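Lay summary. Proteins are chains of building blocks that fold into shapes, and those shapes determine what they do. In this project we predict the shape from the chain. Here is one chain we studied, written as its sequence of building blocks.
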Amino acid sequence: MRNRSKTKLVPALGLHWLTPLYDLVVHLVTREQAFKRALLNQLEPSPGDVLDVGCGTGTLAVEIARSRPDARVSGIDADPRMLAKAVDKARRAGVRVTLDKSFAQSLPHDDGSFDYVFSTLFFHHLSGADKPRVLAEVMRVLRPGGTILVADWDRPANPLMHAMFFFVRLFDGFENTRDNFRGRLPALCSEAGFTDLDTIGRFNTIAGTIALYRALKPAGTNR
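And here is the predicted shape, written in a compact code that computers can read:
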């Protein structure tokens, strides 16, 4: 998912007609409540400006806005069908979330706009070349000292998780999921310039192992 002229939108579940099932699949397969609660616990009481990259149907963005009323929450996603669901969730929850249609490789935000950037179950959809591009964009839109929080499929924790993750790789593509399978997301974050990388949680699910990472944009970095 790079520039708009060359990037082809791939629905989160592979086919547009499966989009209505997205929330149910994520809930059943990923231990969603547990890992998203762990991410939310990393936020300060007044977290400032927060961006959810690849926000999908808006579950996390809406929960941030609900649980941290002082936060200014934004989300981006390239799929208008997913964004429509996110808009409806925010409306029903009675919270304000700014939602934009955009590919993550070209974020529609100024440099240094956010204190936190979240990404959940998004990086495994990206090609090996696009993962660093998205991380570079996250680095750009974060303020110096800002935090990136990532939850995504990771190196399987045991042979059972290895076997279960095969089906995710088959569905989402072996090339796209290669870095996740090899546990390389922390290395990619480091290569993008993030520091103080920490693993804040690991969750074994019926589809593989999800890891949660936290890292910082160096305080002296202006890009």
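What the prediction tells us: The longest helix spans residues 80-93.
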